[in-house]
Amino acid sequence: MGFFDKKFCDICGDKIGLLGNRKLEDGNLCKKCAAKLSPWFSERRNSTVEEIKEQLAYREENREAVNVFNTTRSLGAYTKVLVDEDQGKFMVTSASNLLEANPDVMDLSQITAVRTDIEESETEEKTKDKDGKMVSYMPRRFKYSYNFFVTLDVNHPYFDEIRFRVNSGSVSTGNKRARAGFTTRDLSMREFEKYDKMTQEIKEYLENARFGQGQAGTKAAGAAAAAEAPVKKVCPCCGAVTFPDANGCCEYCGSPL
What we know:
By secondary structure, the chain is of the alpha+beta class. The chain has helices at residues 31-34, 49-67, 98-101, 189-209, 219-228; strands spanning 7-8, 15-16, 22-23, 28-29, 73-75, 80-84, 89-93, 106-107, 111-128, 134-154, 161-165, 171-173, 233-234, 241-242.
């Protein structure tokens, strides 16, 4: 079959435009059907037509979960973690129209670990010399910008990680972030600390919510956790935050704790 031969979507049957094909392991997928997949799904090229059909069926079922989702807590600023504490469920999205976006609704107990990180970008400042050529300052000067991320490791059939940026735009500073934080000259210290604190609050809340503690999760789960008072541990093998099972092993990978 040639490059310019007509292709049809193996999901909906529609004709695929010249640049609209999304290759599957054993077939083709149009842009319209691809847009219905989970935004956290990244294994499309290694998926079969049947596997994509199964995921799209799950995504349609997910719409009903979105429809009955009642946000009782919102965490973050740009991309947000929305929590339905009564149902013990959450979603991660930047969409204003939830029914249209159809974000994946998950149980808080599906979170296996929460991580935060800050990405730093460096840009050199330059000036013009007498000939109008851009040259470095002496000594050289740099500007730094930062983006703040939260990564959730999750137990889900179609993806195992949700990584999102908390801030809407990069936080810029004049000087490099020092080990102990910014100096008073380094602004924007206030913005940096705002998003740094925000990521830590998301991490703390979701780590507690994963075990039904505090106000997160269902009331029944919270009462059970308080009554039994189990000790959560970090698995040295897979890194999941977990309760030991009856044999003292990780509930996810089975390694001894």
